């Protein structure tokens, strides 16, 4: 660690501290986050309450977290992304004018540049399955993980529902001083989109779907337990198939060889939209593609994989998927 990095870490430690899980400074249950004359506090995804004498203003955020904060008028000083920002489906429409970009590659973050910005808060999703925040997971460069030495890392948890994650960012933004009056209308529009989706799935009770991400020589099938947007779709009536044998070392997926890509026969095949249409092209090139009934019938679409963080984005995806469900044939997989 450089001397400057160490000095900033000490300064951050003096500014913010992690307190006992789920309580405010007076020992009362915390409500998620507060900002005011008494300072700042936020119950983060790791279960700890973070406090400061002043509301943090110099924020470095994972790009998806930054999009959420920006939707509430909170502009970070820098972002780190998992890939090229211009081509990231989850970052379409985001305006990063004046914001430093510390990374456009997963697992690699320019911590030295981040140090010069003197951040007082790092924001990213908390991933319970990996016991880490975005950018701090296993496989990330050790040098890049030193971003956490610059300031405390906070953010809502990935869990059983993207709705909870979206609400978590709204709470965080409010604690940082955002005017969240707009969130009420956003939530109203979102609830209307959910209702329309539920109506569509109720009309197709036998419809099954499979979420996939083919690449190279692997037919990867998503495990809904670790994909909260898929859990949401299940809770709203879509029968998303649960693969039987998740990969033991990374249970987000069941990795099949293409020779076994017809193991599951859904009525609707949903491609990971982060890699689309390349992942669909990968499947197209495989001889077995014609044996996957949904693919052969043209019953394909995309699913918003791991990037939803705002009500407007989620509502737009639900509106699109509602149309897909309304047009789908719930007997394709049985043909």
UniProtKB/TrEMBL annotation:
Q: Does the keyword Transmembrane apply?
A: no
Extract the signal peptide range. Answer: 1-22
The residues covered by the Fe/B12 periplasmic-binding domain are: 109-305
- Please indicate which superkingdom the organism of origin belongs to: Bacteria
Localization: Cell envelope
Q: Which family does it belong to?
A: Belongs to the bacterial solute-binding protein 8 family.
PANTHER family (alphabetical): FERRIC ENTEROBACTIN-BINDING PERIPLASMIC PROTEIN FEPB (PTHR30532:SF24), IRON III DICITRATE-BINDING PERIPLASMIC PROTEIN (PTHR30532)
Any idea what this protein is called? Answer: ABC transporter substrate-binding protein
What's the source species for this entry?
Cellulomonas fulva
């Amino acid at each position: 660690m450089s001397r400057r990095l160490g000095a900033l870490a000490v300064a951050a430690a003096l500014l913010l501290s992690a307190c006992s899980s789920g309580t405010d400074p007076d020992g009362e249950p915390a409500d998620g986050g507060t900002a005011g004359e008494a300072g700042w506090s936020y119950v983060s995804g790791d279960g700890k309450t973070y406090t400061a004498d002043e509301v943090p203003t110099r924020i470095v955020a994972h790009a998806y977290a930054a999009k959420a904060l920006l939707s509430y008028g909170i502009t970070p000083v820098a972002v780190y992304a998992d890939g090229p920002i211009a081509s990231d489906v989850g970052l379409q429409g985001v305006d990063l004018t004046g914001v430093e970009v510390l990374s456009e590659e997963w697992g690699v973050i320019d911590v030295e540049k981040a140090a010069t910005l003197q951040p007082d808060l790092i924001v990213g999703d908390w991933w319970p399955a990996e016991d880490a925040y975005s950018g701090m997971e296993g496989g990330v460069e050790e040098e890049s993980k030193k971003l956490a030495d610059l300031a405390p890392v906070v953010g809502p948890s990935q869990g059983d529902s993207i709705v909870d994650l979206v609400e978590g960012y709204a709470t965080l933004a409010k604690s940082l001083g955002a005017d969240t009056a707009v969130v009420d209308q956003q939530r109203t529009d979102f609830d209307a989109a959910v209702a329309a989706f539920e109506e569509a799935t109720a009309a197709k009770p036998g419809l099954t779907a499979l979420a996939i991400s083919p690449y190279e020589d692997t037919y990867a099938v998503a495990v809904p337990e670790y994909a909260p947007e898929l859990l949401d779709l299940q809770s709203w009536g879509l029968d998303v198939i649960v693969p039987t044998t998740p990969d033991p070392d990374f249970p987000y997926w069941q990795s099949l060889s293409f020779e076994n890509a017809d193991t599951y026969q859904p009525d609707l095949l949903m491609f990971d939209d982060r890699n689309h249409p390349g992942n669909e092209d990968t499947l197209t090139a495989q001889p077995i593609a014609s044996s996957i009934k949904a693919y052969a019938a043209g019953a394909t679409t995309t699913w918003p994989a791991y990037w939803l963080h705002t009500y407007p984005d989620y509502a737009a995806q639900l509106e699109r998927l509602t149309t897909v469900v309304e047009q789908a044939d719930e007997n394709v997989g049985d043909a």
